[in-house]
Amino acid sequence: MENSIGIIGLGSMAKAIISPLIERGEYNPEHVFGIVGSSASIASALSDLPKGVSIVSSEDSLSREVWNAPLKLLAVKPQQFGKIKESVSSFQSNEQFPKPLLISVLAGITLKSLKKAFPGHTCVRAVPNTPSLVGEGLTGLAWEDNITLDQKIAVRKIFEPISEIFELPESKLDSFLALTSSGPAYIALVVEAMADGAVAAGMPRSLSNQLAHKTLSGTASLLREKSLHPAELKDMVASPAGTTISALRHLELAGLRSALIEAVVLAAQKSRQLADEVPS
Q1: What are phi and psi of 213, to 5 degrees?
Q2: What is the pTM assigned to this prediction?
Q3: Which one has a higher pLDDT value, 87 or 119?
């Protein structure tokens, strides 16, 4: 089946990955095949996807089309990993794909576990983050040893439309995930708290949210475009005996910096624990 892709699990991240590929003409909708857990999930999975994409439940005999595809995206929840089993397919090997390629975006599931569950495949771990939904993501990739250069190129094409790509040793993926995948939640919490503070200080809610969001995006752009270290920007804003240094003093006393450091460390530890929880 030429230039087809199979998708196992169709949540928001899987849609964010496949939709730009269809829009760019990398895949025809008729060559995109998906599996969801039950027939009741098909309608919601098809929403926002182009007409022609085929999605079936895992019990449907037509699910074999996913396993026939040379390239597959595994995008179920990590807790569902033990329920996914490699199925027999009529995959025809070629120079680019001597074995079918499986790309997993599951947090904490190691290449060792993937290769055990999918022995007929070449496996790749990918760690994208939610800003990929708006084409501003980051993706970490770790390769199985026997992957070919052509397969690496195929994988990069999957994620390049939505993210900047970092090829990393697998041992670095847990910390990459803790910073980039969990990081948007930390930042969202900080932005929400800042907006709440403005409300407490007398600002209307809608304007507080708008200003907090713009402060976030503007600060990120300034750091990036001027190649500033965060401490440089902090010092630019914090004048002697001013409002900002008074606020920063309070944040230091409250332990904000330490709390964020420990949050990243704990997220990385949890990612490693997920790997240990996979049934052997």
Answers
A1: -65, -45
A2: 0.89
A3: 119
